[in-house]
């Protein structure tokens, strides 16, 4: 028996929505300490963000990202800046490079004192 086209389209749409929901659910966890993604994110912040904010994160073209400099900043605003960038400034959006959960983890780490860069793992997708 052949399904009517509308039923087939609805089934495909529901299947795609379920796959998307399960994939997004995985993006809500912070990276595992000492895991590959943890090392990638530390490297991205220290090298890519550090190229403007200073390799020690004490400022450069961009403002300092130290515990003291971020103490009075709302975490939600910092996450929004990482994800969407700052129009009219050199700060680019990192949406598509990091998930929102990863941006939240980065902000949390910056507000505690960001870990040192141990380098990229040998199998990194960023190589």
Task: Kindly name the structural category.
Answer: mainly alpha
Low-confidence stretches: 7-26
Shape: globular
Our Rg estimate from Cα atoms comes to 19 Å
End-to-end separation in angstroms reads 50 Å
Q: How would you spell out the order of helices and strands?
A: HHHHH
Q: Overall pLDDT, averaged? A: 82
Q: What is the total tally of β strands?
A: 0
Helix % is 40-55%
SS summary, helix count? 5
Strand content: under 5%
Q: How would you characterize the largest beta sheet?
A: none
Q: Describe it for me?
A:
With 127 residues, the chain is mainly alpha-helical. Helix content is 53%, strand content 0%. It has helices spanning 5-26, 36-53, 67-70, 75-84, 100-112. The radius of gyration is 19 Å and the shape is globular. It starts with a helix and ends in a 15-residue tail after the last helix.
Short description:
The chain is 53% helix and 0% strand. By secondary structure, the chain is an all-alpha fold.
Element layout with pairings:
Elements: H1 5-26, H2 36-53, H3 67-70, H4 75-84, H5 100-112
Helix pairs in contact: 4-5
Properties at a glance:
127 residues, 53% helix, mainly alpha
């Amino acid at each position: 028996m052949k399904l009517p086209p509308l039923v087939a389209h609805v089934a495909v749409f529901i299947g795609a929505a379920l796959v998307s929901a399960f994939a997004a659910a995985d993006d809500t966890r912070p990276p595992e300490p000492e895991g590959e993604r943890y090392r990638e994110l530390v490297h991205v912040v220290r090298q890519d963000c550090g190229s403007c904010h200073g390799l020690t994160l004490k400022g450069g073209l961009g403002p300092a990202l130290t515990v003291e400099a971020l103490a009075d900043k709302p975490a939600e605003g910092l996450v929004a800046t990482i994800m969407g960038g700052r129009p009219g400034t050199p700060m680019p959006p990192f949406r598509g490079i990091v998930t929102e959960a990863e941006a939240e983890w980065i902000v949390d780490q910056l507000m505690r004192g960001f870990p040192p860069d141990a380098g990229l793992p040998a199998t990194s997708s960023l190589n």
